[in-house]
Amino acid sequence: MQRGSLGSVKPAAASVIGPAPRRAARYAASRSGGHNRSAATRTAHGPVPQPRRQLGTVAAASTTDVQPQAPAQTPPPEVKYAADISILPVNKRVDVVRVACRDRLPEVEFNQRHGTTSNAYLLKNTSGAYEVLIDVPNKVFDVDFVGQLASAGATSTLTTIIITRLSPERLPVLARVLEACKKEGLQLLLSNPALQLLNERAAANEALSAALQGVKVEAINRGSDVKLAGASKGLRFVLIPTPRWPDLVAVYSEQDNILFSSNFFSAHTAMAGASSATDSGGWDAYAADWRNYYDCMLAPVARQVATALDRLNINATSSPEAGGGGGLAQALAPLRRLAGLVRDLTLGADDGVAEPLTVGAIAPMHGPVVRQSLTELVGRYAEWTARQVEASGVAAVAVLYASAYGNTASLAQAISRGITKAGVGVETLNLEQCGQDELEAALDRCSGFVLGSPTLGGHMPTQVQTALGTIMRNANARQVPCSVFGSFGWSGEAVDMMERRLKDAGFRFAFDPVRCKFKPTQQTLQVCEESGLDLAQDIRKKKKRNERVAAEKLSVAEVGSGKALALGRVVGSLCVLTGRDGDAEGAMLASWVSQASFNPPGLTVAVKQDRAMESMLPVGASFNLNILAEGKERAVMKQMLKPFKPAEDRFAGMDVQRSESTGAVIIPDSAAYVECTVVSRMEAGDHVVLYAQVNDGKVLNQTGQSAVHYRRIGTNY
């Protein structure tokens, strides 16, 4: 491989939204702490930039001050997930090494329960030999990744390994790949933040350090490129960091018009039964998975996503190998709208790729290679991002956190998901990466905030302490609702410290602090999502009051036409929908219920998109529908309408039973119940309509009638 412009190592930009020229000096000074630093230092295995100092840096094994430390508790055993591994062709020069797992992983982004794929890509040179490997899978998958590479002959021919996103869980796999491929001239390319993580872990891990010996490690800079042997065109790199993934890099193959997009344009699906590397089922097959991934992982960082999309500047096109794709007519409007938003966010700074990338396929880290749905997905990303950025302009919650092992970041992600579900924007700041000016600006404009921290040596890490001091001094932060959260391995003092200081200063908490020991469970993630929902609904209280007033005015205005009053005469059975997902459980009143099919027996249920229960009802989920009995419904309604804390038992004090097949609650005083499985979902305005197949059921009251919900007007429940 010939090397292009990777010869010099420069510190990478730490924030995806670059400062305008007139703010550049102040911005750089604030992010560096006002001190000069050398551009790079060297270790035995390559040039290494000095760590960038922002508000502080989380060190997983230490704090700034040496403190007495509680004895470490044994962490839970490492979990391995069964998976299949295969190599599939993307085109004649590119193959995907696909690790497909059908199990459900615990994080919030896997709530579709479709499993996942972890993709790595092998690129061939003009002689047909594998020369470049892009990415490695997570160690949690029980597969022999190195063995698969060896059986394909790649370990003897690879000269370059590119990492678009590095996490501690990928380092053991990377080390094994380096050992298997080690030979003179092997180079490892990754961004500066990833390089910092690599060196921190190598200093404490002999196996990783040994694997790096003799490997040429280089940092990817904006505008870097490389060329495969004999190729006239090369690979270009675009830095697209987000607060959770500050090391994110996209790779563009000029030869193939393929964008290796890392986490962007991903979907968590095992692609069960798919024999192709691409989205051969089209938009209908993968739309829900693409949307869920975006909502969970990218909607909370919409400002950074907007700038990243602007940097990528994708010009979707059809190629002979793409099998179609069509024009961009439907995507132009949201893309132009997004470009305008980016200009506002960056104050007109030129911070991206100058010319468009002509893209015939997108190869993400998770899910199918996108060809058939390319234009649609690019346009939808622009549309979703513009919507989130605009929502943040109306009301936004600042989600501020630091994370030593990724667990606090998972909590932040789940809280953010709850906030965005309620239609409130999120501005996420990773306190390891952001500067003081960014933090102050976010606090000045936020409508609420949450602060997350791990516990290290019995204390908050330095940058959380610094951020907490900034919060205490900020006038706007004192006026808005807030809360705190964090993960720990022993006693969790950091959460207690944050809570005490904020409450002593008179800050108003919107929900109880969230504490998580080691990795979050489904119940913990439910607590986080519902807590975020509560905070967002607290912020929207005034808006909701205005909506109710508007609805009352609407009802008066429409009395003459009778439309709203007539709609209110549509009645439905009064039901309680119950569901269970691992150790998480939910329930809600439902009256927008109707039988939808005879064969197979099926029904529809409409669920408002900002209901906590909605996340527990993806395609494939099971639930029970308890049809309440006339004359016995009031006590159940009273119970269901009580205010509940996040993940609180909705049936405390009630006599209930559980279904053996679904695990969900059965209310014995109901007229009947049915056990159902969600077959499909359809967005319908502010609701989601579920079509579910009825698998079983029982009449519990042979003489009783179903309770019916009557409404005065069709503009509310």
Automatic annotation (TrEMBL):
Which region ranges are annotated with the description Disordered?
Answer: 1-77
Keyword vocabulary terms for this entry: Electron transport, Transport
One of the Pfam families matching this protein, by short name: Flavodoxin_1
Source organism: Chlorella vulgaris
InterPro entries linked to this entry: Flavin_Rdtase-like_dom, Flavodoxin/NO_synth, Flavodoxin_CS, Flavoprotein-like_sf, NADH_oxidoreductase_modular, RibonucZ/Hydroxyglut_hydro, Split_barrel_FMN-bd
Q: Which residues form the Flavodoxin-like domain?
A: 397-536
Q: Which GO molecular function annotations are given, in alphabetical order?
A: electron transfer activity; FMN binding
Which residue windows does the record flag with biased composition (Low complexity)? 19-32
Q: Which SUPFAM superfamilies match?
A: Flavoproteins (SSF52218), FMN-binding split barrel (SSF50475), Metallo-hydrolase/oxidoreductase (SSF56281)
Q: Supply the name of the protein.
A: Flavodoxin-like domain-containing protein
User: Does the record bear Transit peptide in its keywords?
Assistant: no
Which SMART domains does the record cross-reference, listed alphabetically? Flavin_Reduct
